[in-house]
Amino acid sequence: MNRREVSKIIGLGAAVSLLAKAQQSTQTNHPMPATPENIVMLIYPGMTALDLIGPQQVFGYLMGAKVHLVWKNKDIVVSDTGIGIRPTITFAECPETVDILFAPGGGTGTISAMQDRDVLDFFRQRGKTAKYVTSVCTGSLILATAGLLRGYKATSHWSARNELALFGAEPVAKRVVEDRNRITAGGITSGIDFAIRIAAKLRGEEYAQAMELTLEYDPQPPFHSGNPETAPKPVVAMMTAMYAPLITSIRDIAARTAKERG
Amino acid sequence: MNRREVSKIIGLGAAVSLLAKAQQSTQTNHPMPATPENIVMLIYPGMTALDLIGPQQVFGYLMGAKVHLVWKNKDIVVSDTGIGIRPTITFAECPETVDILFAPGGGTGTISAMQDRDVLDFFRQRGKTAKYVTSVCTGSLILATAGLLRGYKATSHWSARNELALFGAEPVAKRVVEDRNRITAGGITSGIDFAIRIAAKLRGEEYAQAMELTLEYDPQPPFHSGNPETAPKPVVAMMTAMYAPLITSIRDIAARTAKERG
Predict the structure, then answer these.
(1) Residue B261: pLDDT band by 50, 70, 90 thresholds?
(2) B248 and A CB contact within 8 Å
(3) Which end of chain A is less packed: N or C, by CB atoms within 10 Å?
(4) In chain B, where the domains are located
């Protein structure tokens, strides 16, 4: 990666000075990688765009890493709120060496992805050797259906978290759950917390703190409604009812998956 | 908008029950709009994708609203971290009636947008009549260059906030700043706080709380580094140095803009 490319990626001006600082940093021991890390992020129709873009914004600022958006072809993929995003590579073009394998969540689009043989084959294959196998929101259910969370602690969107047990995972009610090389995050916005933690792993704390400052991640949620423990009960009831058909679909897939394993 | 479209937009299953609940809600007095609101979000090369997608995820879940991604043509727009996003309308196709006019920020891409006559003309024109004129991050500098923040309190990314004064705005160090119909938000992630507040304005508190729960917006930043007051001093110094060329460009544009006004 040359200076011009670095500058383009950071998109915020004189990136080169940050790069130099990070490399010189004596506080941490995370030099730039000798070869760029491959961060491979699945995209698919009906995914929740914020599940993807929260982490991608951090990964994209991670100098020395290469971020790929992978799908079965190069057609524009449309998110659950109508954002059309272009894949950068196909499953066939994906590098063999994957440092971070990532699945975003969604609603009915995720249910489809959980039943898509190409998606599952890809995750089974790359999941064997990827350095980290990761997800945000219901993306963990794609990992689970591919058999990648059996025997692992994991999390998901609050509404679907307990369903992970049906796939042999151990659900944990935390925003980011790390078990060996599996790192799963909770609902939608938790992808930001997740990605800053990954930045700390790959580049050290100072770099991750710089990311947090760049993102101005000093959140002030307008309500106290961000998890089912604190949200008003009628709101939780409304959303739980809304997600019910989705949960039924997940259970059906879990039953079929268990049957296929025999 | 028919049931099928609503269901597609929410992307999370039985949206219709939420719609019905929201309409019946006696707690708030925000019925669904008689005609869909037009939410018009600028996209442009080099923008910061998370500035856009944070709010878009909320607006896209706002049943009864129509979200447009506007650019000068329909070519894929590439963000500062390489996300290729498809515009849905051109400036020429944009509805006359705009409920929310929105500009995301970025780095050098934003500097270009601030000097793009098509962008400025579009904002000047639609900014006159839009119900709300809004931004996230350095998007406020696009509004400011178009003359839309003169005499208004406003905010921006922490690194560029004070520069708003050069365009006749009054910088305020808050995550979301509201002055009459101008609503500007701070750096990148503040767009999520911003959008939930907009949801409350348009659909009432209960609906906005449901959005916050859907997003699982119960943030746990890994560090205390999300604003320059709390971040470690060397990290602030590093990022301030990194942003310096960008600030110089902003000042140059401000000087030229002031001269052109005479």
Answers:
(1) confident
(2) no
(3) C
(4) 3-261
